[in-house]
What we know:
Strand content: 15-25%
Radius of gyration: 22 Å
Order of helices and strands: EHEEEHHEHEHEEEEHEEEHEEEHEEH
Structural class: alpha/beta
Shape: globular
Amino acid sequence: MKRVNAVVIGSGAAGGIVAKELATAGLSIVVLERGKWYTPHDCRKDDMRNQRTTLLGNAFGPDDEGDPRVVVDARGNARTVAPSDGAYQNNAACVGGGTLSYGAQAWRYLPQDFRMRSTYGVPEGSSLEDWPIGYDDLEPFYDKAEYEIGISGDYSGTPFHGPRRRGLPMPPLPPNREFGILEPAAKRLGLHPFHLPMARNTVPYNGRGPCMRCRWCCGFACEVDAKNGSQNTVLPVALATGNCELRSECMVTQILTDDRGRARGVSYVDHKGNSQEQAADVVIVSACAIESARLLLNSKSRLFPSGLGNRYDQVGRHLQGHHYTGAVGYFDFETYDDVGPGASIAISDYNHGTPGLSGGGMLANEFIRLPIHMIDKLPPGTPQWGLAHKQAIRAWHKRSIVIMGPTQQIPTATARVTVDPGVRDQWGLPVARIEGNVHPHTYDIGAVQAKRAEAWLNEAGAIHTSQISYRSETVSAGQHQAGTCRMGNDPHGSVVNRNCQVHDVDNLFVIDGSVHVTNGGFNPALTIMAVAYYASAALVREWKGTQFRS
């Protein structure tokens, strides 16, 4: 195949942006995506088969039969799991990645989120660290992401955000019923409620129409194309340049290196099952935290016997996601108005500053819950099956509000991804092996957050509340997975430098959530996008200076 300037592995929140930035700068690009390019018409509204409820498989991949992983619990027991198992820690495998089906919350991290070690010290047993870059470095790129991807919302109600050069490009959606119930209650508690930011059109924007406010949002593709992801924003721009080719259903099997230890391209299996090689001057890995680490570890050679970037056994370490906590409240009146997406109001008062806690998290009302999502949230004593169970669902589903939020997770070096020595996928590759556990201080933070969510619901008039705080015997990652290719200045403790360049290979980059040092108390998508714009700018500068011909 014709050599190109860059091959990008993955087309999600980061890969789509990298492709667009490089293609518009004049570089020739090939994007390799292991999944399909779905349209909303391919994805029926199946309550049992979407990106939040995977009982019958994943609507957006990967395949249940051919893509297992091995998960090791806290007692050292290993089991092979399919993508429909929650322990798999799945993210979508398709063009656009998780941005095709995500809930589209689009948060900037706070300045303190980049300085966690300096702010709090290091909890015993943790690997808490500062980023080598800060909020000010990313602010111009947060702004660029908000305007190019398209973000709606309104920060004016809260003082808890970093400096910003301008407001969001689109207003928030009009308040739903839950907003009207929760806003005055939050203010009575002295909190600062506001319209949360979302990658969702609320008015016509970038040639596409606004949200129609249906209930099937988080976990589903948007049938009116109003939810903004890589597949309908940056990738079309990249393809329109004529400099970018996207190849879907292509599974990259190895990053190839030459006898000097520089990346020379990739090998992959195409949609027909044929093995191919794509030569490139630069390789960018944007496959999401678990799969990016797996690919580096599987890319072994004489010069890199432990995998690429893994000279100091850092690839795969510090795996993290989010520990979600909150509360459910039941009311003696209907709270449900069937106006999507549901999530509408948030507070950031508790992200930092609580004595004794190393961070916190935002709290927001949840997306519209399909009835199946209420199975484990009914009042205590509710029968678990039969007519009485159905009657309870009918009685309470429309009289409930759930407040949840992602707790700032405390990373550990032992929460990690390796490759399994015995289990292989449909392409014959060693699968990801996930092991370790959540640092206990994360649960301390989550317990306090659950109490705060419950207090908010009680103030809003709930007649019964229950805290929600799950403990897992396996590492937390999920759709917010991060941390396996940590960014840092010291190669002994990180995989990439501040520009997402692998320390040992100057023309190999990892640009996705895996470079996050910490994962913030927010959904990470917008930060993944901002880092992608930031790292792409550095890559283009270096390309124009040297074309990586060292």
